[in-house]
Please model this.
Amino acid sequence: MQIANGNYIVIEGNIGTGKTSFSELLAKDLNARLILEEFSDNPFLPLFYKNPERYAFPVELFFMTERHKQLQEVLMNPDLFQQYTIADYVFSKTLLFAGQNLRGEELRLFQRLFTTLNSIFPQPDLLVYLHRSVPELIRQIKKRNRSYEQDIAPDYLKKIQQAYFNFFRLQQNEIPILVLDVEGMDFVHNPEDYQLLLDLIAQPYEKGLHFWKGRAEGF
Model:
């Protein structure tokens, strides 16, 4: 199988959408290097979900430094034996989430640090966004039963979803962005669902926003 757009593919989505599971399946099929966000190692994350205002800056700073270290190790060292690289996050999401959680001088400091760190990374050849409605995200989060996620509020998920949409509007002239509405799909246990998404991702896309199953609600 070949991906028409290039070798560096990012799978994105809101919390609970299944982006990591899909990235793992895709990397296996493509024999690709796989970059998975190690969010469970963030010691501030459980504290942040309980007290966002107090722990927003340390949680975002930890995420940014860990993402930068991980991407630098992989993207700056090509592998001659693996054509593709699949990641379940784009580094720009660092600023996307920080913009929702930080204010004032903390946000301005964070933006300066982000700009410096982001300058070394290539843009993805294709960014795929898996979209689910907030009620379905809540069901997915409850189902996987991670203790530190159980306090996530629907309003927070709506804010993150809208932040992604705003980010895509700004980036649509820079990279191809494919928005896949996976509401009700189970690509982990249903091979037909997975193959359908795989076929969509393999197609060529120009720079800009591309939608499957219509425009996502809220776009």
In short: The two ends are 31 Å apart (CA to CA). The longest strand covers residues 8-13. Helices lie at 19-30, 45-50, 52-75, 93-101, 104-118, 134-144, 154-171, 191-202. Residues 52-75 form the longest helix (24 residues).
